[in-house]
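R.M. (postdoc): so does anyone remember the format we settled on? I'll just put the C-alpha cells first.
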C-alpha cells in the first residue's frame, strides 16, 4: 500500500472517530448501560456489541468493564475481560492494514523480536496509554494474532478488575461519579510491572547495539 493511500485512510478514519466522539458521548453509553442493567442476558449481548463499535466512538475502554461491574458485580469479570479483548481487535486490524517501513515500525519490530508478542503486549497494556493507540501500533509492527490476544488479555486483566470494582461500588452510572476512579498508586504499580517486563529485553538490545558499535581491535 502506497504511503499516500495509507495517510488518506488514516486521515479519514481519524475524522470519522472525531465526529462519532462529538455526537455520541460516553455519558450516553453509560445511561444505556444503566437502563439495561436489570436485564442480564440482553445487557451482556449489548456490551459485546458495543465493544465492537467502541473504537469508532473513541470511548474509554474502562467504560465497558465499569458497566459490567454495575450490572453483574464481580461475577461479570469474565465478560468484562472478553469485552476488552474484543474491543481491541478493530484498531489492531486497522494498524495491520496500514503498516509501513518507517523508523518507528522498524524499531517496534526489533523490540517485538526481543520481547516476544505475549510479553510485549502484556507490558504495553499495563502502561496507562490510550488502548487504541497500543492496538494500532501492535498491528503495524506485525504482532501475530494469538500472541496479541493472549498478551492483551493478561495486560487488560487489571483494568477489567478495576472497572468491575468501580462499577460495583457506584449507585448510578454517571461520568461525574466515575471521575477520578483510577488510583494513581495503582497506575504507578502497573507501570512498574510493565517496566520490569521490558527491562531485560531493552537491556539486551542496548548491549547488542553497543557491542556492534565498538571498534575492532584486530
Amino acid at each position: 500500500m502506497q504511503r499516500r493511500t495509507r495517510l488518506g485512510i488514516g486521515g479519514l478514519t481519524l475524522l470519522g472517530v472525531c465526529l462519532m466522539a462529538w455526537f455520541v458521548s460516553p455519558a450516553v453509553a453509560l445511561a444505556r448501560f444503566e437502563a439495561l442493567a436489570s436485564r442480564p442476558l440482553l445487557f451482556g449481548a449489548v456490551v459485546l456489541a458495543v465493544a465492537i463499535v467502541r473504537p469508532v466512538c473513541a470511548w474509554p475502554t474502562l467504560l465497558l468493564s465499569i458497566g459490567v461491574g454495575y450490572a453483574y458485580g464481580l461475577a461479570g469479570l469474565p465478560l468484562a475481560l472478553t469485552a476488552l479483548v474484543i474491543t481491541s481487535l478493530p484498531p489492531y486490524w486497522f494498524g495491520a492494514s496500514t503498516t509501513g517501513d518507517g523508523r518507528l515500525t522498524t524499531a517496534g519490530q526489533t523490540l517485538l523480536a526481543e520481547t516476544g508478542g505475549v510479553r510485549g503486549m502484556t507490558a504495553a497494556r499495563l502502561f496507562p496509554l490510550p488502548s487504541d493507540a497500543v492496538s494500532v501500533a501492535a498491528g503495524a509492527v506485525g504482532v501475530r494474532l494469538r500472541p496479541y490476544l493472549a498478551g492483551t488479555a493478561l495486560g487488560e486483566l487489571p483494568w477489567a478488575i478495576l472497572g468491575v470494582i468501580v462499577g460495583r461500588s457506584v449507585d448510578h452510572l454517571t461520568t461525574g461519579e466515575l471521575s477520578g476512579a483510577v488510583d494513581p498508586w495503582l497506575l504507578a504499580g502497573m507501570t512498574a510491572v510493565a517496566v520490569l517486563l521490558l527491562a531485560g529485553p531493552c537491556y539486551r538490545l542496548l548491549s547488542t547495539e553497543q557491542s556492534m558499535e565498538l571498534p575492532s581491535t584486530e
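R.M.: ...and that's the designed sequence above, right after the C-alpha cells. Also worth knowing: Residues 5-23 have pLDDT under 50 and may be disordered. Residues 3-9+19-210 form one domain.
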